[in-house]
Amino acid sequence: QVQLVESGGGLVQPGGSLRLSCTASGSIFSINVMGWYRQAPGKQREWVALITSGGSTTYAGSVKGRFTVSRDNAKNTVYLQMNTLKPEDTAVYYCNLKIQGYDYWGQGTQVTVSS
Fold first, then answer.
1. Is a pLDDT exceeding 90 seen at residue 18?
2. 96 φ, ψ to 5°?
3. CA distance 19 to 83
4. pLDDT mean over 18-46
5. pLDDT per residue as tens digits for the range 74-93
6. How many CA atoms lie within 13 A of 10 on its CB side?
């Protein structure tokens, strides 16, 4: 069984920064994709950033240049550094792990950007 545990959410002012972390445990294969999705109130869940086990990254257009996804394979941990945060970044952020066609999700962590 795979478990994902997130941390790092909170309240931040516009223009501020936060870093999210997510550690995976259980039957983790070395070849996988980890990343982040988010869901704002009344909206569908959307992908934010993904990173392969080889380090290749992709970003949604709305966060490119402001967010950075990284990972530590030895720790099975993925990070999301979020800079220049905007009110529209307010959402519940979910960690995601893709292994052999299966998706696993964390419990979500709230990020609120407000003055």
1. yes
2. -135, 140
3. 9
4. 92
5. 999 999 999 999 999 999 99
6. 11
